[in-house]
Amino acid sequence: MSKIHLECDAYKRVEKNLTLENFKINKEVALQAIEIVNEGKSLTAEMIKEVVNSEKV
What we know:
By secondary structure, the protein is mostly helical. The protein has 3 helices and no strands.
């Protein structure tokens, strides 16, 4: 799988879907999430809840 970055189609698709749900992701948080995924780790529901509740990874 190729690496994800802010300008790739996969990220743009996710960002668009979040926008449709009236959810805007902070660029800093997005970069941290991309880094986690590019390292081969999975984003868990618990990680996402933590970010939403505290606005940090």
